[in-house]
Recover the amino acids of this structure.
């Protein structure tokens, strides 16, 4: 795997995002100066360019089926799609930065800073989603993967599903702004997204099989909603959700979602989908309406930390979880013989 460059500690800017390609042979980083850097297995920098006019918060690789493609998002309200071209290819209309990377498309529909961008599982085609401080989630599709300059805006919805809350919220407050997102990795289920919001809530949205539009599926609750004294939608966390990771689909009877928060905790959620579609779900499913009764979720574990947690990431089979925490450490968790999640000794 690529190793960190030797002069990383001398960098004048903060690195906000890091992403390995599908094979783990190259790594891309993005930073507060708007730069993207690409490194090879030996840690040599093979590409570097100014990608944005503000802090770049996330950079991600597309599946190799679509070629060497990156997407990035930034404070400058843009999602940029980048592709690597060989010298033998025809020159692109945009300037080509160092390393052969060129700008393929700019998606500029956002009206405020963007926090996250992610590609959908490749079985659906070339899709990506973004979210940011305008509280909207946008989903894009590239109908022709050979023409990355052309993207269609497929969907746009408010992450919290409560559009009336925007008018009631005081100016400058962004309690319901989505901070992170993660795609459902299943190859057999319709597309779905998990969204972590600044108010501590976690929402699941998905494509309705009947209507073909996006609808809210579930709002995660920390405890059983049947217990007295709870609000209709208690928050998954008591503070901003910084990171999400949906465990790979490896034949479980349930989904496994990890959420990381500024409240110094990581929570693991078991998500289940009923096989049959209830009649209520067929009649409902409006974008801002009630959750889909087929979906259910419960918090199966909570991992406490001494500082706020920034990112979580599963390994390839969903058996180990890496957690990046505020004290500059990465902890790794796995299940013991009793089925409890324990920190690996010597990690972090």
């Amino acid at each position: 795997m690529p190793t960190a460059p030797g002069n990383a500690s001398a960098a004048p800017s903060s690195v906000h995002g890091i992403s390995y390609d599908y094979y783990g042979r190259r790594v891309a980083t993005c930073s507060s100066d708007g730069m993207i850097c690409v490194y090879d297995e030996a840690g040599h920098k093979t590409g570097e360019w100014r990608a944005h006019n503000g802090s770049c918060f996330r950079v991600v690789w597309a599946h190799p089926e679509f070629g060497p493609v990156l997407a990035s998002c930034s404070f400058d309200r843009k999602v940029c799609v980048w592709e690597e071209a060989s010298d033998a290819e025809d020159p692109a209309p945009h300037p080509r930065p160092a390393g052969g990377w060129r700008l393929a498309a700019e998606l500029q529909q956002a009206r405020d800073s963007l926090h996250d961008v992610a590609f959908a599982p490749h079985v659906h085609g070339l899709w990506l989603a973004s979210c940011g401080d305008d509280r909207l989630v946008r989903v894009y599709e590239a109908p022709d993967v050979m023409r990355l300059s052309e993207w269609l805006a497929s969907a746009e919805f408010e992450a919290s599903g409560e559009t009336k809350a925007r008018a009631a919220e005081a100016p400058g407050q962004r309690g319901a702004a989505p901070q992170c997102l993660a795609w459902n990795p299943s190859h057999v289920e319709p597309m779905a997204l998990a969204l972590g919001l600044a108010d501590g809530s976690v929402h699941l949205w998905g494509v309705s099989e009947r209507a073909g539009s996006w609808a809210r599926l579930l709002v995660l609750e920390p405890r059983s909603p049947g217990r007295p004294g709870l609000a209709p939608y208690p928050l998954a966390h008591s503070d901003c959700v910084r990171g999400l990771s949906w465990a790979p689909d490896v034949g479980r009877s349930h989904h496994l979602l990890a959420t990381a928060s500024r409240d110094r905790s990581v929570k693991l959620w078991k998500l289940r989908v009923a096989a049959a579609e209830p009649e209520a779900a067929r009649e409902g499913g409006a974008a801002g309406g009630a959750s889909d009764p087929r979906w259910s979720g419960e918090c199966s574990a909570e991992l406490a930390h001494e500082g706020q947690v920034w990112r979580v990431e599963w390994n390839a089979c969903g058996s180990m979880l890496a957690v990046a925490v505020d004290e500059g450490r990465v902890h790794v968790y796995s299940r013991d013989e009793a089925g409890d999640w324990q920190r690996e000794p010597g990690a972090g």
